[in-house]
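Open question from group meeting: does this chain pack into something compact, or does most of it stay loose? Before anyone orders reagents, we agreed to write out a predicted structure and look at it together. Recording both the input and the output here so the notebook holds the full record.
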Amino acid sequence: MRIRFFSALFAGLSVLANAMAIAAEPHTPAMTPTEQAVQQRFSQRFDKVPVDGVSLTPYGLYEVRLEGAHLVYTDEKVSFVIDGNLIDAKTRRDVTSERKEQLLAVRFNDLPLNLALKQVRGNGSRRVALFEDPNCGYCKQLRHSIEGIDNVTIYTFLYPILASSSTSMSQAIWCSPDAAKVWDDWMAHGKPLPAAGGCNAPVAQWLALGRKLNVTGTPTIIFGDNTRVSGAISAERFRQMLDGNKG
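Structure tokens returned:
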């Protein structure tokens, strides 16, 4: 309720879920007394909204980190709040987006890959993990886009969050003898799914992992260099990200 209350004050922008426990966030120094005072002041003025941290930016503003790397900016007295992206006018860098990318990065090597479907294309030298729901239209769009991309190992975490049928569909896929092929056949070609299998699909573990990593929608893409992207992207952009080119 508190987060929704605060968001309503700023054009109804949604606040993301809890910051992930295995984030690859760079070391954050302890807050100074002034930053601690800003944190306390901010929380008090906005219905005791939880504040993960405060830090002074090079632009004279204080960055206030709300749950899930939602960033806003304020002054020392919290007399005003800016809820939007901070742009460096000299370099035209989107400072807010870059900071969120840092906060939401995932250490790829820490992912529980035993819970994912594995598909190796070509030499499999590049790695990517996808969180997808079998009812996700954007996930299907992404699968169509990346069909021709080779030399990659794709780990798919089934993430049944969009519809009540998503769970049973995910179970049917996971319990299939060749689950990765069944998944591709369904997502990229619309082939019917087999009947639900009798194995115990790790649905609870998928959902817990997604919550832990702050995955709030599908598809969510995690590349081998720990970079995260939300939503379907073009094949060209996918290739660039696979090669570590964030350009």
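Observations to bring back to the group:
The two ends are 38 Å apart (CA to CA).
Residues 142 and 150 are 15 Å apart (CA to CA).
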